[in-house]
Design goal:
The complex is a heterodimer of chains A (325) and B (325).
Chain A lengths: L3 E12 L2 E13 L4 E5 L6 H8 L7 E6 L2 E2 L15 E4 L3 H4 L6 H7 L7 H11 L16 H13 L5 E5 L7 H17 L3 E5 L3 H7 L2 E6 L2 E7 H6 L4 H8 L49 E2 L5 E2 L24
Parallel strand pairs in A: 3-8, 3-9, 6-7, 7-8
Antiparallel strand pairs in A: 1-2, 1-4, 4-5, 9-10, 10-12, 11-12
Chain B lengths: L3 E12 L2 E13 L4 E5 L6 H8 L8 E8 L2 E2 L5 H10 L1 E4 L3 H4 L6 H13 L3 H14 L5 H4 L9 H13 L5 E5 L7 H18 L2 E6 L2 H7 L2 E6 L2 E7 H6 L4 H8 L40 H5 L5 E3 L4 E3 L11
Parallel strand pairs in B: 3-8, 3-9, 6-7, 7-8
Antiparallel strand pairs in B: 1-2, 1-4, 4-5, 9-10, 10-12, 11-12
Helix pairs in contact in B: 4-5, 5-7
The chains are: A alpha/beta (325), B alpha/beta (325).
């Protein structure tokens, strides 16, 4: 059974300029013991989707279910007890921990049962690789990487089946990032926790996630097991994202840039939303919107260059127009 | 001739706990049309070493050493003269384009004020040059952009505008401190291509400070790796990144997710955490985290000395990777 399931989720924000559709019909599932990476540029709606997944923003339409129960927006109510097993970790460990309370007391907060809390706190600290004496210390005594692992430990205190992590790696140095990435993999394998990992760092997602969903302007454009997504992207946007990652191989190769900008979600382009930036767009693309269609190998893509039920076909390789930058 | 030559740079900052040495003897030089990359974890002194040159440190800071910029010595230069040089001949671009632009002034005002003050241009010619600069950094519709405000642009466009402002007075040296850290990879690729083009077309010397070895690898010609306020290794980009000789450089590279590595392999985090300034370990500052450390490493600070063909410098008593280099 899918622990967390999002179906055709739509989220609208209402501002002075009228309605903005931040998420425009996105679906996603997270099973226990699996890591799902959610990637896309800023403004694509990935953080909004994460918030909708845990009930922090209201959905306009579509459904979010956790362990078979509907997740609805909190507004001013207390969070229902059954949702305690669905946890969220934020990007910034400097602001998500209380600076005036000890680590131990913040971890104990999240525990559902009274009783042997001390032992459980120590167990959690050990699990995330923090010293046992952290119990009586304060967040400022630790590095950014250690604080982020504390935030993960606090989420684990509730014995969750799914944790949603919103850019947990973004503010960390390479070594701290590696530690957290290893920890996340271990949690999913050993504790059978499902993780939804939102990140703009594709290199780390490639390493950590079992499956990847690529989001563009409020919609999924490709979902796939991780390895084949990188070897042969089925959507031109996925291809552009992967080509933009700089490599630390010393070769001095400049990464490929994707021309243009993410369009205003209040006025999405006609047809395929990616067509104004797509190097392969043809006459059908500005007119008709492709749905996310299933391909073989557990993959799907929303692109007219692919055919439903077929293996993903290679994208036409064009020499990128470098002069745009 | 070097655009900038720094020797024996030492910076002490005042803290409530007394003076703390943040940069401890740093040498480097930057040539025209060259991108010189400085990498290291947060707190390694890479930013402070730049701010020190421009007199941008808090009162009570002590700076020693020499920094030759053209025919001038920057260190100890009267503040007024330093300000006029650092506004005209040396420009800086920072990580956060959201805060480095003035929110209440139009783009045109921010671009032209600089030029009118430092180059003595009248309004008409300053406006013309502003349009030319925005075109140069690929801002669409530059005439209209002059009348708009920072919040009306995306993060990537704001960073392009910040670069245009930095270039306004035709500097000879551009210091870019984590210029792409806050941006998406697709946008980052565009900024890196822009920097690369500008240095070629304008013979601009660029100092690029980054924690991202992928960014360093894609544009830098020569690099220095900072650790705890010192340079531990420097040399040509391809030498340092393809055949790292310092255990710290190697560890930094090993912590990165490698695109070809099997997914089930853990990333290799560096043991321990970087030391905080004021608590720098004796001898080689990296010794508590280093698998190769000897008694000599623990007692004596290793000097940065030329190795191999002389382009390369290394500060390590052990040099465990001498053969592979």
């Amino acid at each position: 059974m899918n622990a967390l399931e999002l179906r055709d989720v739509v989220v609208d924000y209402h501002g002075r300029g009228g309605r903005v559709r931040a998420v425009a019909g996105a679906s996603l599932t997270v099973e226990r013991g699996r890591i799902v990476g959610l990637v896309g540029e800023s403004g694509c709606g990935k953080s909004t989707l994460a918030r909708a997944a845990v009930g922090l923003v209201a959905t306009t339409s579509g459904t979010v279910t956790f362990e078979g129960r509907p997740v609805t927006a909190l507004r001013r109510r207390a969070r229902p007890a059954e949702l305690v097993r669905l946890q969220l970790v934020f990007q910034n460990p400097y602001s998500s921990l209380n600076p005036r309370r000890t680590i131990g007391s913040q971890l104990a907060d999240g525990m559902p049962v009274r009783g042997s809390r001390d032992a459980r706190v120590r167990e959690l600290l050990e699990l995330v690789g923090l010293p046992a004496n952290a119990v009586g210390r304060y967040p400022h005594e630790f590095s950014g990487g250690q604080r982020q692992r504390m935030a993960v430990a606090r989420a684990l205190a509730a014995d969750p089946s799914v944790i949603v992590l919103d850019e947990p790696l973004a503010s960390l140095d390479a070594s701290a990032q590696a530690q957290l990435a290893n920890l996340l993999r271990r949690l999913s394998r050993e504790l059978d926790v499902g993780l939804l990992l939102i990140s703009h760092d594709l290199a780390i997602v490639r390493h950590v996630a079992d499956d990847v969903s690529v989001m563009y302007l409020g919609q999924m454009v490709e979902t796939s097991p991780t390895a084949p997504l990188w070897e042969r992207p089925a959507h031109p946007y996925t291809e552009a994202l992967t080509a933009a990652v700089p490599r630390a191989d010393g070769a001095g190769v400049l990464p490929e840039s994707l021309p243009g900008e993410v369009p205003d979600p209040a006025h999405p382009p006609s047809g395929c939303r990616f067509h104004p930036r797509c190097p392969y767009a043809f006459d059908r693309c500005p007119v008709e919107e492709p749905a996310l269609m299933p391909l073989t190998g557990g993959r799907s893509a929303a692109c007219w260059l692919q055919s439903p039920g077929e293996p993903p076909s290679a994208l036409p390789h064009l020499e990128p127009a470098h002069d745009v930058q | 001739m070097s655009t900038l030559a720094v020797e024996g740079l030492r910076v002490r900052l005042p803290t409530p706990a007394g003076e703390v040495t943040v940069v401890d003897g740093v040498d480097y030089d930057v040539q025209p049309a060259e991108v010189f990359g400085i990498a290291g974890e947060s707190g390694s002194g890479k930013t402070v070493s730049m701010l020190a040159l421009l007199g941008l440190l808090p009162d009570g800071s002590q700076v020693e050493g020499t920094a030759r910029f053209g025919g001038d010595e920057l260190i100890g230069m009267p503040r007024r003269r330093l300000q006029s040089i650092s506004g005209r001949d040396i420009a800086m671009v920072f990580q956060d384009p959201y805060t480095s632009l003035h929110p209440m002034l139009s783009i045109g005002k921010q671009l032209t004020e600089h030029m009118r003050r430092h180059l003595g241009l009248d309004r008409r010619s300053a406006d013309d040059r502003a349009v030319e600069l925005l075109r140069e950094v690929r801002i669409p519709n530059p005439q209209a952009a002059l009348r708009r405000f920072p919040h009306q642009f995306s993060g990537g466009m704001r960073q392009r505008i910040a670069i245009a402002i930095a270039l306004a007075c035709r500097p000879r040296l551009l210091i870019a401190d984590e210029p792409t850290t806050a941006l998406d990879v697709t946008v980052q690729a565009g900024i890196l291509r822009l920097l690369d083009r500008l240095r070629r077309e304008h013979e601009l010397a660029v100092v690029l400070i980054t924690h991202d070895l992928g960014v360093l690898s894609s544009v830098a010609d020569r690099v220095s790796i900072f650790y705890a306020g010192r340079v531990v290794e420097s040399g040509l980009r391809q030498d340092v990144l393809q055949r790292p000789r310092h255990p710290y450089t190697r560890a930094l590279l090993d912590a990165l997710p490698h695109p070809e590595a099997p997914q089930d392999q853990d990333l290799v985090a560096i043991a321990g955490t970087p030391p905080s300034p004021g608590r720098i370990p004796s001898g080689c500052a990296f010794h508590p985290r280093c698998a190769f450390a000897t008694d000599e490493s623990r007692a004596v600070v290793p000097p940065l000395v030329p190795v191999g063909d002389g382009n390369r410098k290394l500060a390590c008593h052990v040099d465990p990777f001498a053969d592979s280099a």
